[in-house]
Amino acid sequence: MGKIVGIRFNSAGKIYDFDAGAFVLNPGDHVILETKQGLGYGIVAIVPEARGENKNKRPLKKVFRLATAKDRDQLAKNRETEKFSQNYCQNCINKLGLKMNLFSVETTFDTKKTTFFFTAEGRVDFRQLVKMLVKKLRVRVEMRQVGIRNQAKMIGGLGRCGREICCRSFIEKFEPVSIRMAKAQGLSLNPTKISGLCGRLMCCLTYENTTVYRPRGKSRRNKK
Is the same domain home to 206 and 153? Predict the structure, then answer.
């Protein structure tokens, strides 16, 4: 029976299941993995465990090997490539006059594909931009438009509490947040005090929402 290991590709990112094979892995170990995009570089988040009968029997991609010092050097080179790609892409955006905010670039471990992340108020025709990038970088290019909350999660920063924002440090999936949560907790409804770096309501409003005391309201039945 095979073993499943949980892998993260980014800090606070989603945990993906992989076939651990015969590898003995511990949390924090760096590994090279088989992915749809080719070989990838990840970090062990959950130790391998036997696949139970209730587990999905779908085939999983495998852990290829443990990362070496050479792999870490390659990862550092990829980061430099990403910086160059982002600067070049931003220059192209300015030249084409596109209304988009480029904020991050990710290159696959084998450097065969580069993904450009951006935000925009509406749809953007980036066909000419892609042509310019492919001609210069000589790799497969993907333009991915994301929401403002995802941008904050990817970039990170400090919240008003003085700690790294929750979505960057540990939140894997965004939960719905409403102004009613702030009201129920007796918090100021000033947008500047209950909004995060992304400009949306702070995710931490949900933490105590289920334990907040809510007095029963008066009956609204119409009297006859």
Answer: yes
Q: What pLDDT score does 98 carry? A: 95
**Whether residues 36 and 76 fall in one domain:** no
Cα distance between residue 101 and residue 199, in whole Å: 16
Element (H, E) at 78: helix 69-96
Assign 49 to helix, strand or coil. strand
Report the run of H or E that residue 81 belongs to, with start and end. Answer: helix 69-96
How long a stretch of residues is the chain?
224
Question: Domains in the chain: how many in total?
Answer: 3
Establish if 119 belongs to a structural domain: yes
Q: How many whole angstroms separate alpha carbon 106 and alpha carbon 90?
A: 14
What does the alpha-carbon distance between residue 150 and residue 174 come to, in Å, rounded to a whole number? 9
Q: How far is CA 140 from CA 77, 108, 132, 135, 206, in A?
A: 18, 10, 12, 10, 40
141, 153: one domain? no
Claim to verify: residue 78 and residue 123 sit in the same structural domain: yes
154-170 average pLDDT score: 84
- Which residue range is the domain that position 36 belongs to? 3-67
Place of tokens 């299941």: 17
Alpha carbon of residue 60 to chain centroid: 21
Write down the pTM of the prediction.
0.77
Whole-angstrom distance, CA of residue 6 vs CA of residue 20: 9
